[in-house]
Amino acid sequence: MSSFNLLNLGNQALRSNQSALSTVGQNISNVNTPGYSRQIATFSTLPDQTGVQVDSVDRITNRFLTQQLWSDLSSYNQTSTYADMSGELDNLLATNTTSVSNALDQYFSALQNVVDDPVSIANRELFVAQSDAVVKRFNDLDAHISRQSATINGVMDDVASQINSLASSIAELNDNIQTATSSGNPANELKDQREELTNQLSEMVGIRVLEQGEQFSVFIGNGQPLVVGTSASQMQSLQGDPDSSQNDLALIISGQKITVTDELSGGSIGGLLQYRDEALDDARDELGRMAIGFAESMNTLHSAGMDLNNELGGDLFKDVNSAAQQYSRISSRSDNQSSMRATSGVSIQDISKLQASDYELTYDSDNSITLIRNSDGKQMRINQLAEVKPELPATSFATTADALAAVDEEGEFYLDADGKTLSFQVDGMKVTLKTDTRLSNGDTFLIQPVRTGAEDLSLQLQDGRKLALASPVRVTPDSDNNGSGVATVSVTDPDVLMAASNKLDPPIDIVFNNPDASVADSVMTYTVYDMSEPSNPQALSSSDYEVGKTIELNGYDVVVEGLPTPGDRFSFSFNKDGVSDNRNALALSDLQQKDIFDGGAYQDLYGSLIERVGTRTSSSRVTMEANKAVLDSTVTAKSSVSGVNLDEEAAKLVQFQQAYQASAQLIKTSQTLFDSLLNSI
């Protein structure tokens, strides 16, 4: 081998080992740099004993572990976000200062005081104050929950902006990496930056990454492209449609806006959307259902009572079916072909059937209308319900108003021939939809019968003297009664109870009669008399007596328990100046334990809500901890592959330093040989 070849070998080895030393130095200097992947110089032998060269400086990564890290980051951040938001809601519902159950306890305690002493003005005013307090508690708790919804909207705005920034940066890095690699630069640092940005992106939303050569393509949702090569789509947070209170997320792809809210999962966005759909909406709907049921049941009984002014009670709380509230419960999509009229609305008909859910109503085709209950996904075809007055064609109604009024039973519907008016009753609500033009295929409406129930709750009565604690009907057993019969009254329709002030319409006597001796197995009967003219009572009806059977009168029902004897008489008259009567107050108090809803009494419903939220919170925390353990394991595994090990790098430093010194010695030896050659001439 000539001294020249030896010099060339030494020179090649010197440069190669210098490159390897630089790579080791780069690794050591970036040991604490986030996202840095260690690099390694790859050597290859040159042909014909001409030395060595560095083919490339490669990043040490594991594609499977990288993909797994993105998946684990998305899963952990989704459950972490969900657990944080759910924990906040759990505290709101259960803390005494915000709990509705605690406020209801104080409300019914004040009600018990007026039961004990209905004449006391102080007790009455205290009850009015507690009624206002329970209203404010419903309002405040709903406001807290609504603020969470507003917070989610704000976070969605911020995250959409961050996603856009990350997507643009990834697309730009794709371009830079392509340019660098085409000129022979490995662009390792640029690839590290791209991977780190993708890590940050996966913390915000679930992603799927497709690697094609040196390029990254990032997809979200059900395959919607966020980054394709050097192009990035834009994400936009926009007002929901038709629910304007909840933001949607859309991708703008080639100028076209595509809503992707329902398709996103993973990351903080996935956690927020899951929490909003599962917990937040459920809590607000349940709270609204509870508020509506509370107000409606209290109003119904209070209206059947009598106040200190000898007047029938009105609503204790604001009417749950005011025109404004009915209209607010239904909204239409902005792209509907038909235009909804302001006379549309949703009225509450039966609180025992009312559900804590919203509904999606879609006009399909040929008068086929689908209603989806979102809480459980149940689908109902409106035209599979019973058409009102099935024995008559729709055109037989004198007016549309008559037809709409006829929809008064669960499971009935009416759709006019022009397709502009639809009414149906289901789940305790009556929906009336009126449009300016015929309903068109695909027209969609959102029905929210209880969403704002707690927000809308307000106190109607302000004067304690107007609390209707007495019954307007006085029951007077005749002093000559010999039996053990006891008559009780419940008002069913206060509007028809009285013909004029201080007078029942009409005053009634019920008299029990001897069995008919001429009829075998005859039983005792009773006769109902109109006592408008006491000197000339008019028999209205007679019937066999059955213990506990309801006797229906004009605006009120009577039940006689026990065993009256023939000749016993009960008189029913207006309860004028019955200030010490607490019968209606007792009925109001009994509502605390009554199964008002499908699910129990007021506080049963609230307790179930707290239990659901608590279970979700606990479950999400357990899942979060499990996801954190998986994430930590993946980070450790990836770090063992891509991370810098200082001990290993120190060993390589010695190895390449010695090789470098040996390469220098080759050059020195070559020089010595060359000098010897020259001296020999």
TrEMBL record:
This is Flagellar hook-associated protein 1. It comes from Neptunomonas qingdaonensis. One of its GO terms (biological process) is bacterial-type flagellum assembly. One of its GO terms (cellular component) is bacterial-type flagellum hook. Keywords: Bacterial flagellum, Cell projection, Cilium, Coiled coil, Flagellum, Secreted. Residues 88-317 form the Flagellar hook-associated protein FlgK helical domain. Residues 641-679 form the Flagellar basal-body/hook protein C-terminal domain. PANTHER family: FLAGELLAR HOOK-ASSOCIATED PROTEIN 1. It is found in: Bacterial flagellum; Secreted. Belongs to the flagella basal body rod proteins family. GO terms for molecular function: structural molecule activity. Residues 156-207 form a coiled coil.
